[in-house]
Structure formats: C-alpha cells, structure tokens
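Page 42, continued from yesterday. The earlier attempt failed because a stray header line got pasted into the input along with the sequence. Redoing it now with the clean sequence only.
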Amino acid sequence: MKKVKILLLSACLSSLFAIQSFAGWIQQDNGQWKYDQNGTPVVSQWIEDQGNWYYFDENGVMLTNTTQNINGVNYTFDASGKWLDSNADKEKTSNTYKNTEFGYSLEIPGDVTTTAFDGNTQTFDISNDKMLITFDNETCPEYLDPQIYANAYEVGFVSALTEQVTFIDRTNTQLGEFAAIKSRYIYSNVINLDFYACIRGNKIIFVFSLYTPDTQSKAQEILNTLKLLK
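This time it went through. Structure tokens are written below.
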C-alpha cells in the first residue's frame, strides 16, 4: 500500500511540475538565477511572474536579499528575489487545518488550492502554478524503527520520480514548531524539492515542498505556520 501511495504522489508531482512551466528561469552552478526571454538573457530589466516582480542587474543576475537603487528609487528584494512592495496590502486570509491524531495545525492561505479540507486526514496537497506542498501522515508499525521507516519512505519516493533528481544535503532543522530531518534535492535540474520527516514516536509527518525562486518564500511562509496542538 505504501509503495502504491508513493507512486501516486510522485506521478502527481511529475504531472504538476511539467518542465515547460519553468521556461525562462535558469539557475547557475553558484545558485544565482538568470532569466532567458525568447533566447535573449534579461539584463537591467524587471520581470513579472505570478504577480511578483523581480529585477535582473547589468550582468543578468536576479537581485536577492538586498536593497538596490534602480533609476533613483530604492527597491528591497527578499531571499527569493521577490520585490517587497511597501505599499502592498498586508492583510491576508487563511484557513486553519487541524489534525488531532498527529497533533498539529497549519495555516493555509486563501489564495492557494488545497485538498486539506476534503475529508482525507492522511494526505493532502497545497498548490499553485509553481508550488506544491504535500503532507502525508504515516503511522509506523510497532515492530519497525521509525527512523528506518522514514529513510525507506524517502528512498522509495525519490526513486519513483520520473525526472532527474540530484541530492544536495541532509540536515536537522525546525519545521514550524516541529523538529524535522530535511533532505534537499533538485528536481528536473530547475525545481527545488525539500523532503521533511517529522518523527514523533510512531507517528511520522512527511512533507514534500517543491518550489521555484518566485514561490520559495510562499512555500516557506506556509510551512512556518506548522504548530503543535496543545
């Protein structure tokens, strides 16, 4: 059953993240991003993507995590390169998802598509055009070590993906209020794939987060709302 579920999740991922969706974005070996527009590198120019604005300097490199004077006006860009508009409406609406069996809650913005409230308490997705977050709540059998179970799950998931997957690193981290093991991958050479395993006894919350530079901050913002139910 677990193998079938992994195959279904990976098939959904492959379908949603068709490579043509990311035409234009090019990541360099040093992690910097450039943008190709109809075969011509974008330089000293703004690019709008999914309602967000990004600026590429005279070398064609996307500005990130900085404030830059452009044509006499100071603009601030976050770590994902998105321009932070100080005049934008800060009010956001969200819905709270709660899973009492696994003991967590999550704030899901109203501007994304989600299956969290469809009645399936084991697996749900949160997505937009260039972002996919999947939660899979698993109960490890009593006779198995939860860490071994989590490792096997990750190997099965990654091996089932149809496109090239490159492993980057694995670290212990925090996912909201949960301790987690995080593995980072690059999927199809251009898509970031973060795999999290939050182990609490024999209850394991698996989280897959896929994003591009323009949706990185959105994905992380959602994941940061993961809280322990009191």
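Notes: Residues 23-84 form a domain with the left handed beta-beta-3-solenoid fold (CATH 2.10.270.10).
Reminder to self: strip header lines before submitting.
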